[in-house]
User: Which sequence fits this backbone?
């Protein structure tokens, strides 16, 4: 498909470095986008300005990932724990998907991107659900990059829900307890039809998972940077991918 509408911003995005290995690009990259608040504070701006700027980084990195041929990009946009933030900030964060999609949906469609949402709909405002559902349905047939927003997502709840479903199936005689294995568990998670991330990126210098994809990240490579999410660029992204390419993944073997 002809990459049309992204052309303008694409031109300002650094090309992939010649040193990057062809054929060894991660299939699935997951990102914990952290540091919006500190980025804003450093500049004397309100936290919301950091989130707004972070939204622009989402677009930049989506284009960069698409250009590299990455198949799945999962972005942690709001965790089940983020409800603890002040209401004004939560309300602002809940408007971001809608704002982002109002501006970008046509370009996402034109560029064959498939939008998905991973998380619980409980407590999400209807405008957030509506914007995401529209994007998901309008891009469902697209075959390019899968842009998966983790929104109102928490890994422990995801796993507990999976375990409850498995337990019910055992109780109802649909499943033998002896047959519960990793594939059964994986098939009950929100990621049942996408591969586990090959690479996890977290920005802002924090070194933790914050309840993000705990099952799926079991064998992923981790890459951390002190850079705050709003100042994270495709150059940092390329650096993460190249570091990934230099690592030997042994999955517990030799
Ligand atoms: C963590 O930074 C960031 C978030 C909780 C929100 C992330 C959301 C975006 C980057 C925008 C999402 C865009 C779309 C299109 C859904 P923080 O606020 O915890 O930063 P801090 O640790 O410096 O305070």
Assistant:
């Amino acid at each position: 498909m002809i990459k049309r509408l992204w052309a303008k911003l694409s031109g300002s995005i650094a090309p992939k470095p010649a040193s990057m290995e062809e054929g060894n690009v991660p299939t699935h990259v997951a990102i914990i986008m952290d540091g919006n608040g500190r980025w804003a504070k450093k500049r004397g701006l309100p936290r919301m300005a950091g989130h707004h700027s972070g939204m622009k980084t989402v677009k930049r990195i989506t284009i960069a990932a698409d250009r590299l041929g990455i198949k799945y990009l999962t972005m942690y946009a709001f965790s089940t724990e983020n409800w603890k933030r002040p209401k004004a900030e939560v309300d602002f964060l809940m408007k971001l998907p809608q704002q982002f999609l109002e501006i970008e949906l046509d370009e996402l469609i034109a560029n064959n991107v498939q939008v998905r949402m991973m998380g619980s709909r409980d407590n999400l405002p209807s405008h957030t659900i509506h914007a995401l559902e529209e994007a998901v349905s309008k891009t469902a047939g697209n075959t390019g990059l899968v842009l998966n927003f983790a929104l109102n997502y928490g890994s422990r709840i995801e796993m507990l829900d999976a375990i409850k479903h498995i337990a019910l199936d055992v109780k109802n005689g649909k499943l033998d307890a002896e047959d519960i294995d990793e594939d059964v568990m994986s098939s009950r998670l929100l990621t049942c039809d996408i591969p586990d991330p090959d690479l996890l990126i977290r920005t802002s210098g924090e070194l933790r998972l914050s309840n993000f994809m705990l099952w799926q990240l079991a064998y992923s490579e981790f890459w951390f940077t002190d850079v705050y999410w709003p100042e994270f660029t495709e150059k940092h992204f390329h650096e993460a991918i190249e570091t990934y390419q230099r690592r030997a993944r042994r999955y517990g073997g030799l």
